[in-house]
Specification:
Number of helices: 2
Structural class: alpha+beta
Order of helices and strands: HEEEHEEE
Shape: globular
Number of strands: 6
Helix content: 40-55%
Largest sheet: 6 strands, mixed
Number of domains: 1
Strand order of the largest sheet: 1-2-3-4-5-6
Length: about 110
């Protein structure tokens, strides 16, 4: 009986977990799309936990988490006038980015 319950509920648990991962990935891609200004060419999360996004227009981002993507929206509005980034990197103590208008910045965290 125990094995029957395990066989019945294990796929449901696995499917539930994978759906939340997919939903989270969709959120990252959706947020990155607004910062790319074009389609997302590739999206990957490395062993180090960083999220790497390459846009169709050759823009690329390397960020730590969802909070950084939210902060990128603020930086985009304040420094890039909403034009998006051609590059964005999160360093240990600051953010380095280049706006699509070719202005570059190093902003402390």
């Amino acid at each position: 009986m125990k094995n029957l319950l395990l066989v019945t509920f294990l796929p449901l648990v696995i499917a539930g977990c994978s759906k939340s991962v997919d939903e989270r990935a969709d959120e990252f891609v959706e947020a990155s799309f607004t910062l790319c200004g074009s389609k997302v060419q590739s999206y990957a999360q490395g062993d180090d936990g960083k999220i790497r996004i390459v846009c169709e227009n050759n823009s690329y981002f390397s960020v730590k988490d969802q909070d950084t993507l939210a902060y990128m929206h603020e930086l985009n509005g304040a420094y890039c006038r909403g034009q998006g980034f051609s590059a964005f990197h999160e360093r240990s103590r600051y953010f380095t980015f280049i706006c699509n208008g070719q202005k570059s910045f190093n902003i402390p965290k």
